[in-house]
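Recall that a protein's primary structure is simply its ordered list of amino acids. Everything else, from secondary elements to tertiary packing, is in principle encoded there. The following example makes that idea concrete.
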Amino acid sequence: MSKKTYPLAAVAVAVGLGLVTLSACGSSSDTAGSGGDSKTVTLVSHDSWAVSKSVLADFEKSSGYQVKVLKDGDAGEAVNKAILSKGNPQGDVFFGVDNTLLSRALDNGVFASYKAKGLSEVKEQYQLDAQKNRVTPIDTGDICVNYDKKYFEQHHLTPPSSFADLTKPEYKDLLVTENASTSSPGLGFLLGSAASYGDDGWQGYWKKLKANGVKVVDGWEQAYNEEFSGSAGGKKAGGERPLVVSYASSPPVEAIYSDPQPKTSPVGVAKGTCFQQIEFAGLLDGAKNEKGGQALIDFLISKKFQEDMPLNMFVDPVTKNATAPAAYTKYAVPVDDAETMAPRKIAENRDDWVKAWTSLVLK
């Protein structure tokens, strides 16, 4: 999976503020400075940034800017690096901070305010910083439990459809999830359970999951491509768990990259286990090429880029004027009622919840 090798292979939340080495890629051969050349605009992102060459080339031609991309590790590492370098950033625009980590970046003053051209096309429910416009919504997706359709058909067992189902005896020893302290989908699944069961109920829920044999691994790559029996990678690795915490976009990935392509995806989604994830981009405070950064953010919510994302990063557009490609929507599983949580509530509870989860589940 392109993005989920996500991040958004899984994106670690990286609570520690470790420095990482930047790697540069993109169409520009200019490696001097971070956007110091007014013709160069520098995008800092997690490792899963992807765009079609032709779409990026069109932006460069129309805007006059050459885009340099600095891939700064997984999303958690990239956010922490941006915090450490605030005021003297590595680039002009940061892409990839999601709603689970948004408050950390905003509270640390990483971004400058900019109201993007075309923002009126972005659906209001994704504009979590609408009053100050320090970040612009770029994409959305849902963290959900996936299931191996073949396994459940062969065992004449109905797949689970909700958080509560996962604690039932018939699903004992079937679920693998990621560590909430090291993985974005793992954290999202924890937040989803907290949103569903409340501050006082989520720990009791996890006690039941633990008693029902949930397996915890470090990250998405191991969970999905090694432990999960329904993915191409999991089949090769001999994965034995037919339930995995992944994304609602897993079905399109498994189908599109199969040869020949099946009529339906071999992977299903338990819609009642989902947590909504939104990714943002922002103009970095202290950006050397502020105008170029603003133009790049405008581009990220343009119809052309929004419609290019689904088959590159396997996420959904956030604008009203964009339509995902037919190859994506053919296999996509729409989720209408994913759990959500305000960034401020996440900020106030995230660290305490992760510590409590670690003590409860891993010890």
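The longest helix spans residues 343-362. The longest strand covers residues 267-284.
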